[in-house]
Amino acid sequence: MGFTDNKPKRMCLSMKRTLIAAALTVIFVMALAVPAFAQMTHTAAYQLDGTINFEKQAGHKCNTGAEIKQTITGNGVMDKVQTVNMIEGRITMEDDNNWVAGATPLTVTTVWDLCAPPKYVYTDDYAEGVFDGQAVPVGTIYGDAFANLVDSGAVEAINSNQIWAVQVQADPGFSGNLSQSGVAAYGPYGGSEPGEYGADEWGWKESDAGVISIGQGEDYVGNYFDIEQHARTSQGTVRRYIDLSSPFSHAYVMENMSVVGRSDISDVLSMMSILPGSEMPGDWWNLF
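and the corresponding structure tokens:
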């Protein structure tokens, strides 16, 4: 049965226009409230069935805080959804992979390669071993003379990789899953004297009492790495390589493992060295 009067149609159209106008108003207000940053976002959904040869890189090391490389090789059926967002000095990735291997194993490998420098320690070539093994203060690492200390062998990195890598391989006929949500940021250093750093840099600040501490400009992107990851296979091989440290907290974590058989690994890591500036937009999932 159709309308006998055009009034209900007019009311529906009017309501739709009102809702659309309200939605556009909200979007416009939100756009005014958030600083504008040049960015690139790539969202892709894949449904794959057959022989797969997949290579992808997102970001480029210190330009985006980290670079993320991923390969998928083998035969099988796979569903994959991935979103990558990049601004200068920061990269985020949401990635979910679910698959069943076919006639040959199906392998997914992901590597996060961070720009942030590792922790350094003094060697026995410095001051006749008096400081051997002690952590190098962060102020020394970012000082002008640090390159000479590295070249002379007086200091060395406890690791040189700054890597978070995982590989999940499902055997023929078995299932695998790799899901992860992560963000890596690394903004530029401004100077070793209080007040030298710019709006998008970090440096040193001095309190009224003369205490010197780390400071950052309002547009500083931050220096941190957060990741939540789940790797599983009902039968196959899982490999993980983690080699991370921070000269700010002197924290260090290393893992090198492989499991052949069934495995299910979930973990969360947060390495916060320097907070973002007050004007930097946060991650969309941090609501409070």
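(Above: one complete record from the training split.) The chain has a mean pLDDT of 86.
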